[in-house]
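Aim 2 progress update. The chain analyzed this quarter is reproduced below.
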Amino acid sequence: MHMFTLSDTGPSEFSVVLSHADAQAEDTLSNFSERLLAELGKALPDFHLAGSFERTLDDTPAIELAYRWRNDSNLMHQRQVIVLLPGVQEGSQQALLIAATCVQAFSDEWNAAFDGMLASVKLRHKATSAGSAVTPAPLVSTVYALSERRRTLHAFATLDEACRKIDAREVEQDAWAFFDAAGSPLHANVVVPNSGTLWRKAGSYTLEPRPERTAPGLRDQLHLAAVFVAGSPAVRLSSIADVQATLGQPVQI
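Predicted structure tokens:
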């Protein structure tokens, strides 16, 4: 599940959540959405369906549901787009659900924001011709940051972006391991040490190729990650499996 909100505390005026749900192999968009509506009707107080219509998401058939329900004193409004995609197992399906929620009725601004997000979606798991496989796009300058403690792998578009978004305090404590697009280890060279005080800024560092040849690469440590985070919109990967598939590819310069 991926959640985008305007605020970290309390209800957000507008938020978007992307999630997946299991679907039966014989499911159609119609019966999946009907089953979802039945579940929503049972779970949400004063649930009311405002509309349901067919649409497309990245040229793939989809259904959009518009509804509202009461949450304490607030009347919540939601637009949810559903698309069925091939599952992990051959012949299986899974549903991708993209839901936008407003504490009040959708304004023109939030409708436009959500429509813009939907228009930008590119589905990685579109059905291909029988027997063909989807090959991940070649990597250009991806930089990986692995936290063994958090079991999380981040992917950034550039070295500079990785250095800006991974806290220098944690880097000084060896809490992160870095790798280039081919999975070769990178060394964090501290330029400005952390002051050690709470109220001052953390230090800074650069990332350089490791001089030693014995340091393990990302392929050998990928099993330490359970969560994948794309740290930049320019990163064309969406899962640890994608990363694993690209590590054997040549890197474009």
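Residues 29-43 form the longest helix (15 residues). The radius of gyration is 22 Å. These observations will guide the mutagenesis experiments scheduled for the next reporting period.
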